[in-house]
Design brief:
globular, Arc Repressor Mutant, subunit A, three-stranded antiparallel sheet, 343 residues, alpha+beta, 4 domains, Homing Intron 3 (I-Ppo) Encoded Endonuclease, Chain A
Amino acid sequence: MEEEFKVIKGYEDYKVSNMGYIISYKNKNEPRILKPRLNRRGYGQVNLLKNGKAYMVFVHRIVAEYFVPNPHNYLEVNHIDECKTNNRADNLEWCTRTYNVNYGSRNEKNKYSSSLCLSQFDLNGNWIKNIDNVSEFCRKHNYREATIIAACEGKIRQTAYKYIWRYWEPEYKEGYKLDVYGLVIGQKRPINRLNKDTREIEETFSSIRDIELKYNYNRNKIIDSCRDNTLAYDSYWEYNNAPITRQKFNINEGIDFSNIEKDLYQRPVYQLNFKTNKIINKYNSIYDAYKNKVQACQTANGWQKILACCQRIRPVAFRSNWSFVDQFDPNEPTLYQQYFNSK
């Protein structure tokens, strides 16, 4: 499938790709791909700004509206491969509500969940009982089965109805105590405030509510800082029983490229003017380009941005376009040029 871009009607500073992502051109010098946030049901959402206000949209619906035909005017969009984060146009189809809720392996999953055996624990990790019929148990206590299953999976939530839930194991019996270290239980998760320069702990709070009461800070900004390791209110924040996921990069310690193929980051690259596509500099590898840019920008994921530009996933990185030397074509328009030539 050849990639296409279309301007989103009513949001002229944004463009949607049939590959399943949305690009923001609010900053004309460095367009960026918006990173979706998953809602409780696993669907990707992004915020589009208009007249100073943010409007939440579902990525898969925007892609479907611009690239998937809908001759019958159906109202729902289905993921063909049942992966809710795969928003490519060729993986989406318009459908009815009945078709959508009964599609694929849904009925098999429901049948499987009815035969599951679970174990129930209190919030301190003490075993309470084993449950051999989840559906009957949920009907008796007026619980939602999906909520308890989500707590067992631990992806969306880790507790449900003030209990901890786990898939049954033979050792779960009277006297067994579950290790609850690191679990998010309600809002009572201690948080550390870190010095932005040294990353040393300056203050510890018993919960995010204590931070709100003392400083009147926005809780969502604190949560984002804990999750993404970003600055909030001139400090870094972390849950005090979880390590920081991204430490400040020290160039003398080298770079961990173990998660990508060596031939990608060892290939020579050009740094290009993102408007004219003229060569600014040449580096022997993404590693060398990364070191040069880290010294100026102090960013821990610069090599990822450069690699994304070389693979034509990202339009701009560090106010420049990038290309592998052996793939460079001076006459080929950049993603930035494609956008503005189409407007």
